[in-house]
Amino acid sequence: MKAFFSLLLLALCHPGQSCSFETGLPQPFRHVLAHAQALALLMARLFVAKAFFLSGLTKIQDWSTTLALFETEYMTPLLPPEVAAWMGTGGELLLPVLLVLGLGGRFAAVGLSVVNVMAVLSLSDIAPAALAGHQLWGALLLAVALWGAGRWSLDALRQRKFGTCP
Description:
By secondary structure, the chain is mainly alpha-helical.
């Protein structure tokens, strides 16, 4: 069990660290691969963050409509509608900012994954195109949760500066 937590802490504390299979590649390829990975993770973070942040902005533009939707359309299984509205909207506004900055990138990705799953589960009938969007966001969030926010993030900057997790 101690080994599991050590690996978990290592994964959470070393964002964007290269995988062991990369060490057998020539230096120029490792360099290109490192930058390609950083770019891909940044693009994934920006793409997903935009979708959730805009959704959160829509919710706060007309709060009474948002509350009505949570009471009638979105059937949140565990929370009262008003609590779910506050938590969902808060998550959609705060977590994308963290994701874009790459600050607590894995935390933000997991948090948005919860918001994403709850959104899909709370809708009684979801259009196939909307479901495909949620699945794409889920896959991109999974990548950030597994590999961290990447080298172009505040998490990586913090690790380079301090060497360990604070």
